[in-house]
């Protein structure tokens, strides 16, 4: 069965190349929604900066990884800057890693 947790676990494979950490730990995955008995997934995510040079690449990777979850047929990935990402959004482990 497709769950939000399963999708988030899969999204841990998407790594921000500048920071070397996955988008989930960085707090860049704002939301994951599962609909239509798991066949459709909506992912809302952000970037550390609106000027991030790899934003398109990360968006494509988020979509591709969500599609690898068994049962998922379609994915809608939405980039947002509302709210703007800040280091306070990182997981405790990421904060520790970056000395915050």
Automatic annotation (TrEMBL):
Residues 4-77 form the MIP18 family-like domain. InterPro entries: Fe-S_Maturation_MIP18 (IPR052339), FSCA_dom_sf (IPR034904), MIP18-like (IPR002744). It comes from the Bacteria. This is DUF59 domain-containing protein. It comes from Rubrobacter tropicus.
